[in-house]
Amino acid sequence: MDRSWKPNVTVAAVVERDGRFLLVEEETPEGPRFNQPAGHLEKGESLLEASVREALEETAHHFVPEFLVGVYQWPRPQGDITYLRFAFGGRVAGEEAGRPLDAGILRPVWMTRDELAATRERHRSPLILQCVDDWIAGRRYPLDLIRHYA
């Protein structure tokens, strides 16, 4: 067993408002791509804390997680990286206008599911549309499924 390999643990915020979903357009080596506000779990933080932090850093919106939408495992075809994504659904409780966004983030954007599907070739991963479809399908699990021990 290869004990040196570990998946990259990431979090994502799924936010719907008036039929539109909060996304970010970000610069990648493949050019501009769409993603949910998402990023890597940092040492010492809980999954929920990471989702709140990433949403704020990438969109300047205060994300309030209310549900676990799903847990997704995706081995990226270009290389030996596997992502383990915890997607949280919730709402935004305000925005910090003028707050600088993370490096590489071009802009936050609100898109309908159809608009998002029409830009599939510009998605950072197939998980983006899957998370939205799972949200629309009503997949909402209680946050107490996630246990964090400091």
From TrEMBL:
<dbReference type="InterPro" id="IPR033713">
    <property type="entry name" value="NudJ"/>
</dbReference>
<dbReference type="InterPro" id="IPR015797">
    <property type="entry name" value="NUDIX_hydrolase-like_dom_sf"/>
</dbReference>
<dbReference type="InterPro" id="IPR000086">
    <property type="entry name" value="NUDIX_hydrolase_dom"/>
</dbReference>
<dbReference type="Pfam" id="PF00293">
    <property type="entry name" value="NUDIX"/>
</dbReference>
<keyword id="KW-0460">Magnesium</keyword>
<keyword id="KW-0378">Hydrolase</keyword>
<dbReference type="GO" id="GO:0016787">
    <property type="term" value="F:hydrolase activity"/>
</dbReference>
<comment type="subunit">
    <text>Monomer.</text>
</comment>
<protein>
    <recommendedName>
        <fullName>Phosphatase NudJ</fullName>
        <ecNumber>3.6.1.-</ecNumber>
    </recommendedName>
</protein>
<feature type="domain" description="Nudix hydrolase">
    <location>
        <begin position="4"/>
        <end position="134"/>
    </location>
</feature>
<comment type="similarity">
    <text>Belongs to the Nudix hydrolase family. NudJ subfamily.</text>
</comment>
